[in-house]
From TrEMBL, chain A:
The chain crosses the membrane at residues 45-64, 76-102, 122-139, 151-172, 192-211, 223-245, 276-300, 312-330, 336-359. GO terms for cellular component: membrane. Keywords: Germination, Membrane, Transmembrane, Transmembrane helix, Transport. Its main location: membrane. Pfam families: Spore_permease. Belongs to the amino acid-polyamine-organocation (APC) superfamily. Spore germination protein (SGP) (TC 2.A.3.9) family. This is Spore gernimation protein. InterPro entries: Spore_GerAB.
From TrEMBL, chain B:
It comes from Oceanobacillus profundus. Residues 21-202 form the Spore germination protein N-terminal domain. The lineage of its organism: Bacteria, Bacillati, Bacillota, Bacilli, Bacillales. It is a lipid-anchor. GO terms for cellular component: membrane. This is Ger(X)C family spore germination protein.
From TrEMBL, chain C:
It comes from Oceanobacillus profundus. Its main location: membrane. One of its GO terms (biological process) is spore germination. The keyword Zinc-finger does not apply. GO terms for cellular component: plasma membrane. The lineage of its organism: Bacteria, Bacillati, Bacillota, Bacilli, Bacillales. The chain crosses the membrane at residues 313-335, 394-419, 431-459. This is Spore germination protein.
Length: 368, 392, 517
């Protein structure tokens, strides 16, 4: 049946460039300005954002470069050739768990934010379940389809973000950005922590690079893709500060959505732009959640290669649902998210360092 | 196979889930304005008792193009009392057939009495900021007497009093002394920051709404501590660069003349080298034209024109100085946002003085404020002079 | 899926073998037997004409047989009967039957399309497709002459796809004429027509058409493979073929386009697609199809590009309205009235005052009514159909509003929706969109905007997994081919569209300026 070459099981480098920002942009940015603003003075949050962005781009490039050295090998394969197979299985399994946690977090967040901006009485459980089922439907389809979804949705997401930006320029007061560079060093570090964890998403490259048909170009493309969220985050952050001022930004639960609340479309059919903004943003969250779940399925599938994808999915989805329903209130959700992203960050760095050092020591050949 | 099962699952979910939030538009009671008053006869309670008046839209009264139901009034006001607004809102739901719905709330009127109570204003605003049904564009005004009266205005041009009031508010460009209506979003900023601020003040008379200067709120305690009149408000607007239009009456050679403001640009320089003696320099560049004149002299005369310009400048300086005097001597409060500029431009000094800026040592009251205005006349209107009594 | 096709093919092969064993009946030498056999197979129908005669000056018995009405009788009279009967003009007649037969075949019969047949199967198929059979006594062969000449409808303007500017020609039921029309558009020697026979009983002609050197051979191979699996009694319309060869029968989206317009087919062929013509229907299938194709009309290219672009963009808007408008109305009115501007919200509330149903029931009612009206309008003869439209649209709408059953706003929404969905260029696409509309309304009635966006995401998931003959349905959106965007939502000036669609992966990539690099 493979009659017409559309490289369905392979990914082009263009798709990788789109997949990275699609993975990064999710619920994080909705509350990011709040966390940053509470750590820094006035608009100084952009410095940790830019440094964090630089670190993220570098990490993206490194991971992609490292993984692309093993052409068409899954993470499990090359990890076991570097370390041993048992170690590789443990590493893969931990990745799968972390990605499941990411999915669960997104699923939970979408319900929480929907309750803020769209619903009043609809139960949290139902909102989450509906979303999770759609994610499951997407993951059950072809992997190429998932990347095509990214390609379809990312422009819409960037467009809506841009329109929030444009419509808000009228409220933008550049004086609110001052004074600059008044934050203490410790606060910068605190802000950096927030900003780096918000750029998490390059970890998908551990798994997806194996599917790229021309891995040579992939590191560069992935790094370019990473630039999109960096620029977007800085823009939105400065906009938040310029419109609300630092104090208010630090006190709003989801400053980025509130930005949309300020928007007043001239002669518009719609009022309450924030609902539209959030509804569109669901696509971004969907992209993140579906890719995270897909990577988890991919990871588990590489360990239990005999199991059907659908079967794995049917086992994983209830687990994700249960995890997402565990936190009781917003504080717990937030600390769950924070713990998850920090462990993801450290784990990614750890795996990279581990594999890189062992590969160098043992002299494992990478086919350049 | 699995995919098909999934699709079915999704559909079944949709069918089973029912419609929790489904509530048809005509079954909602649209609240478009709310007024908050203090109840007179305080019981032996620590917390003040509040009275909340909501203005509900009666859609049938708005009338269709067919003219059906036009005899009905388009709105109805409903009041309830209680200690917390949330409680009142819930009580109110039991009293009306339609569940109150606040997403179209446009105006919050708070009476001066309420605003003067310690900590009450912030507490009231909290609900309107916290609740997701509310918009950030809601306007807040302070009413001189009972706030409820504002909602009881029966305007001739509009069906709904609140719509009338918000429309009037849009006309702030016509008068220099009208303070920009405060959006709840701005109030949120004010509440979070320690600066003092000004909210427009209104009263009603003859089914009309009259804007009368502003109410000055103390930044730390968020309570109303004083009021400014229209002219002082004009001074405030001039300093804060918020004038989009307006006029000044001046007398040149004993003849009345009206200078219409077109563009004003103010610039504030703070010289804070010595925290004990802070110099604030305000330069105001105004641009405008002659709106009306009662004299006969030709305006094309350069000397005469610069004389008028000088007069206008003097007048502007006088207005601004009055306002500053009021702030420094009467209220001893910086409601101009000087401290914010200090923070932005001289962060270290601001850190030193912020405790004692407009309280404690009150550095603000003791600082020197210099005002310099420079007005120019761009055009003289379509004509040089209307009356000509021959050459002088 | 693959295995299903595979098995079907195998089965068919077996069955074919069986049939052959059964029906390969050779022709007898005696003419009487042959004629009896023929009559027996067809059960002596009264439109079967058998003319027995002898050649003048000889004792050779001959016969011609054809079905009345299916042949061109002038041709039979002048070029066959006359020639054979007046054979005596010649000096000598060969005595041997086989020589005579050969001479008649070579020299006497002046029909261009002529062949010999030796089985009864050949004869019955030929005679039923309008050929004339010539029998000669003592020979176990017959001569089959193509004398098709039945009445066909004349070429008319296609009713389903009218354009303001452009060719007025539409396909008709005769496949030969249709092929001629395509040939007239593309006089390229590489234009290929590959003939199949479909229908175990009906044995209809089906023609696969493509341009060699443009089309990607993999597509032809795939279409060919699928066409060969077709095994059914009859294919009365190309819709049967479409359902048989499409990728996913669960999808509401058409994965094969159909058209009545030769110019559209020609353009598709030049883009590297294939066309499937079936005898007996004016609707020609075009494959592969993409989402973008469903919203294209030939007229986009016939008007100047600014107009074409406007029309295109308008159609995308129409597609959006056709799918989402009532759902959005339900979501806004029942779930998020805060999103409607205050004044509008109050007047909608006023107009809904006294309407007994919730918005989604109201919308469902009106949309169903709309469907009924559409269906009634299509089935009735044109003048009555129009009357129904007026009665339904105006009278029922007006009466329903004044009776307080529905609100005026709802009537506007449903009417706008209907207009939008029928401004889509193809009827089958429009209907597909209307099916989805009901799903959207249901989702909106349950979850409001959240339901709409989830359904939209689900729809996209379905679309990206959908393929039409190996071509992803959502291309050139995703997989993204930026150069194809010139002819997608916009229609760039023709001089700038230098390449055939990349997503079709044609062999000959350039359509303009072939000379330069």
């Amino acid at each position: 049946m493979k009659s017409f070459k559309y490289a369905d099981e392979k990914i082009g480098e263009k798709e990788i460039m789109i997949a990275v920002p699609s993975m990064v942009i999710g619920v994080g940015i909705l509350s990011l300005p709040k966390d940053l603003a509470s750590a820094t003075v006035a608009s100084d949050g952009w410095i940790p954002l830019i440094i964090g962005g630089f670190i993220a781009i570098l990490m993206t490039w490194l991971v992609a470069k490292f993984a692309s050295g093993f052409v068409n090998q899954t993470f499990l394969t090359y990890a076991s050739s570097i370390a041993t197979r048992p170690v590789a299985i443990v590493l893969t399994f931990l990745f799968a768990i972390l990605f499941l946690l990411i999915t669960a977090f997104q699923v939970r967040q979408i319900a929480d934010i929907s309750k803020q901006y769209l619903f009043d009485r609809t139960p949290l459980e139902i909102i989450s379940l509906a979303f999770l089922l759609v994610v499951m439907y997407a993951v059950s389809g072809s992997r190429a389809g998932l990347f095509r979804l990214n390609v379809m949705f990312l422009p819409i997401i960037l467009f809506i973000a841009l329109s929030v930006f444009v419509f808000n320029l009228g409220w933008f007061d550049y004086e609110k950005l001052f004074p600059v560079f008044k934050t203490g060093f410790n606060d910068y570090v605190k802000g950096l922590n927030t900003s780096v964890t918000s750029y998490l998403g390059f970890s998908i490259l551990w798994f997806y690079i194996a599917l790229v048909d021309k891995p040579k170009k992939a590191p560069k493309m992935a790094a370019i893709g990473m630039c999109i969220p960096v620029v977007l985050y800085i823009m939105l952050y400065l906009l938040c500060i310029g419109v609300f001022g630092r104090e208010v930004t630090a006190n709003l639960l989801y400053p980025t959505v509130e930005l949309a609340k300020v928007v007043d479309i001239p002669g518009g059919f719609f009022e309450r732009f924030e609902s539209i903004f959030f509804v569109i943003w669901i696509m971004a969250i969907f992209n993140t959640a579906s890719m995270a779940l897909d990577v988890a399925v991919l990871a588990i599938n590489s360990i239990f290669s005999k199991m059907l994808k659908a079967k794995i999915l049917f086992i994983l989805v209830p687990i994700v649902y249960i995890i997402s329903m565990l936190p009781q209130e917003i504080v717990e959700v937030n600390s769950f998210g924070a713990a998850m992203s920090i462990s993801m960050l450290f784990y990614s760095v750890l795996v990279f360092a581990l594999l890189f050092v062992i590969a160098k020591v043992r002299g494992v050949k990478r086919d350049e | 196979m699995n995919k098909r099962l999934l699709i079915h699952l999704c559909w079944m979910m949709l069918l089973l889930s029912g419609c929790w939030d489904e509530n048809d538009i005509e079954e909602r009671g649209f609240v478009i304005g709310t007024a908050i008053d203090l109840v007179e006869d305080q019981q032996a309670n620590d917390n003040p008792t509040l009275k909340m008046t909501n203005q509900f839209v009666v859609p049938a009264g708005i009338g269709l193009p067919t003219g059906a139901g036009s005899e009905k009034k388009a709105f109805t006001n409903l009041s309830k009392t209680g200690e917390s607004l949330f409680e009142i809102i819930r009580l109110m739901s039991t009293a009306v057939g339609r569940a109150p719905y606040y997403e179209h709330l446009k105006l919050i009127v708070v009476s001066e009495e309420v605003a003067r109570q310690p900590d009450l204003f912030a507490g009231i605003m909290d609900l309107f900021i916290r609740d997701q049904e509310m918009r950030r564009e809601m306007r807040v005004v302070i009413s001189e007497d009972k706030a409820q009266k504002i909602l009881e205005i029966e305007p001739e041009t509009e069906n709904l009093p609140v719509m009338y009031i918000t429309n009037v508010m849009e006309n702030t460009t016509k008068l220099a002394g009208l303070i920009d209506p405060a959006r709840i979003g701005e109030i949120h900023e004010h509440l979070l920051e320690p600066q003092s601020y000004v909210i427009p003040r209104v009263f009603s008379s003859d089914d009309k709404i009259i804007f009368n200067g502003g109410a000055v709120f103390h930044g730390e305690s968020n309570r109303l501590v004083g009021t400014i009149n229209l002219e002082e408000a004009a001074g405030l607007n001039l300093i804060k660069n918020k004038i989009e239009g307006g006029y000044f009456k001046i007398e040149v050679d004993n003849k009345l003349m009206v200078y219409e403001l077109k563009r004003v640009k103010s610039n504030i320089e703070i010289n804070a080298n010595d925290p004990e003696d802070i110099n604030i320099e305000i330069t105001i560049d105004a641009e405008g034209n002659i709106g009306e004149m009662f004299g006969q002299k030709s305006l094309l005369d350069k000397a005469y024109l610069s004389k008028i310009e000088r007069k206008v400048s003097e007048r502007i300086e006088q207005v601004v100085n009055n306002t500053i005097k009021k702030a420094q001597e009467d209220l001893k409060l910086d409601f101009f946002g000087f401290s914010e500029i200090l923070k932005r431009k001289h962060y270290e000094i601001w850190n030193e003085v912020k405790e004692n800026w407009d309280e404690g040592d009150n550095i603000f009251a003791n600082s020197t404020v210099k005002v310099k205005a420079d007005a120019i006349i761009r055009t003289t209107g379509a004509t040089d002079r209307v009356k000509d009594q021959g050459s002088e | 899926m693959v295995s299903r096709y595979f098995f079907r093919k195998k089965e068919k092969q077996e069955r074919k073998n069986k049939e052959e064993n059964f029906s390969v009946k050779k022709i007898a030498k005696k003419i009487e037997n042959n004629l009896d056999n023929l009559k027996e197979i067809l059960d002596k129908p009264n439109d079967l004409v058998i003319r027995e005669f002898t050649i003048k000056g000889s004792k050779h018995k001959c016969a011609i047989a054809y079905i009345d009405g299916m042949v061109d009788s002038n041709l039979v009279h002048n070029n066959i009967m006359k020639n054979v009967q007046l054979i005596t003009g010649r000096d000598s007649l060969p005595k041997a039957e086989s020589e005579l037969f050969e001479e008649i075949y070579q020299e006497i019969l002046s029909v261009t399309s002529i062949k010999k047949g030796s089985t009864l199967d050949d004869i019955s198929y030929a005679i039923l497709s309008g050929s004339t059979i010539f029998y000669l006594d003592g020979i176990d062969k017959v001569i089959i002459m193509d004398t098709k000449g039945w009445k066909t409808r004349s070429i008319e303007e296609p009713i389903t796809e009218t354009v303001i500017r452009g060719s007025r020609e539409g396909f008709i039921e005769n496949i030969r004429t249709n092929m001629v029309m395509i040939r007239r558009y593309i006089r390229d020697p590489n234009l290929r027509f590959k003939t199949y026979q479909v229908g175990r009983r009906s044995k209809k002609d089906l023609v696969l058409s493509y341009i060699d050197g443009i089309v990607n051979p993999d597509i032809v191979k795939e279409v060919n493979r699928r066409l060969e699996t077709i095994d059914m009694d009859d294919a009365p319309e190309s819709g049967y073929i479409e359902e048989w060869i499409e990728d996913s029968f669960l999808s509401p989206f058409p994965q094969v386009l159909n058209t009545e317009r030769p110019d559209k087919v020609a353009a598709a062929l030049l883009e590297g697609k294939v066309a499937i013509l079936l005898d007996g229907t004016p609707f020609v299938l075009i494959a592969p199809a993409t989402l973008g194709n469903t919203l294209q009309s030939p007229e986009d290219y016939y008007e100047r590009w600014t107009i074409g672009t406007l029309l295109r963009a308008l159609r995308y808007l129409a597609a959006f309205i056709a799918m989402f408008l009532p759902a959005l109305y339900i979501a806004l009115v029942s779930f998020h009235p805060g999103m409607i501007p205050s004044d509008l919200a109050f007047s909608i509330a006023a107009s809904r005052e006294g309407v007994p149903f919730p918005a989604y029931v109201e919308a469902l009612l009106m949309a169903l009514t709309m469907e009924l009206l559409r269906e009634a309008g299509t089935r009735l003869p044109t003048p009555i159909g129009q009357t129904i439209g007026i009665v339904g649209g105006l009278v029922i709408g007006e009466a329903a509003v004044s009776a307080g059953l529905v609100s005026p706003a709802m009537v506007i929404v449903v009417a706008l929706n209907a207009i939008a969905s029928f401004s889509l260029p193809s009827y089958s696409v429009a209907i597909s969109f209307r099916i989805l509309l009901f799903g959207m309304m249901l989702a909106a009635a349950t979850f409001g905007l959240y339901g709409i966006i989830l359904s939209y995401i689900m729809l996209n998931v379905h679309l990206v997994n959908l393929k039409s003959f190996g071509v992803p349905y959502t291309t050139p959106f995703a997989p993204n081919f930026l150069s194809d965007w010139k002819d997608l939502i916009l229609r760039a000036p023709i001089t700038t569209i230098k390449r055939r669609p990349t997503y079709m992966q044609p062999l000959d990539k350039k359509s303009l300026n072939k000379g330069d690099s």
